[in-house]
Amino acid sequence: xxxxxxxxxxxxxxxxxxxxxxxxxxxxxxxxxxxxxxxxxxxxxxxxxxxxxxxxxxxxxxxxxxxxxxxxxxxxxxxxxxxxxxxxxxxxxxxxxxxxxxxxxxxxxxxxxxxxxxxxxxxxxxxxxxxxxxxxxxxxxxxxxxxxxxxxxxxxxxxxxxxxxxxxxxxxxxxxxxxxxxxxxxxxxxxxxxxxxxxxxxxxxxxxxxxxxxxxxxxxxxxxxxxxxxxxxxxxxxxxxxxxxxxxxxxxxxxxxxxxxxxxxxxxxxxxxxxxxxxxxxxxxxxxxxxxxxxxxxxxxxxxxxxxxxxxxxxxxxxxxxxxxxxxx
Length: 329
Fold this sequence. Notes:
This protein is an alpha/beta fold and about 325 residues long. It has helices spanning about 5-10, 15-25, 30-45, 50-55, 70-90, 105-115, 130-140, 165-175, 190-205, 225-235, 245-260, 295-305; strands spanning about 60-65, 90-95, 120-125, 145, 160, 180-185, 215-220, 240-245, 270-275, 285-290, 315, 320. The chain contains twelve helices and twelve strands.
């Protein structure tokens, strides 16, 4: 039969209340007592009921992730990091996807937090910058951590990389390879990172003394199809390189270039952003910016589950990953 909290208390020689305190990681439990309880938990292979733990205190032992899903890889990697950190505290992750194109987001979140007892919530772009959602959550006393916020930086803790610097570094690399006509495929305007990455593109060209041409800047939606559409416009403009602000869009550029019979990377260099699984499976494999998505998720969960109350942003490093899609001009 499955062990109960009473069995743990009997084996450890303590009260049920003491076992509960140890399981909830509360203070004021002697170290030797805590060790006896933990040994009993391991010996009995005891797994506490989430509902029972929630009833015993003020915690729900659940955290929520509210995410848009233009890129399944992005969400998967974030979830992997969040789950790893949550598991260390025996906390469950509840994932609530939404569609930014629909109008129900605010009402859906309001219903979710009314129905589920969360210890905190993690928000991903673009909802990270929705002031109405932040007001709702913070006014009700929910702990919130945001991934890649573009504004309201001091309202909550956050995790991020420097998207402007990352894009600038990639474009500077293309310039170092001798490229002067460099096309750019940006992301949706709702995402603050889209503006940051475009600023990085512009800054790299300015520092290299290269004129910025509006006709070489296209907008996409992080999809393969939007990357291909951008390539249809940019390739006839005589670009020698295209930097797309997601790997999916970069893959779309590669596909369209292949369709037009171009030799890659000799006729056209292509670079992406994310270092998703797609980056190493296309041909040629993508040179791209690696952002540590799993670590961004882990750190976000750590901020959520820690006792810290300051609104610091944990900045993580990016990395340029060079593969075969970029060549010297």
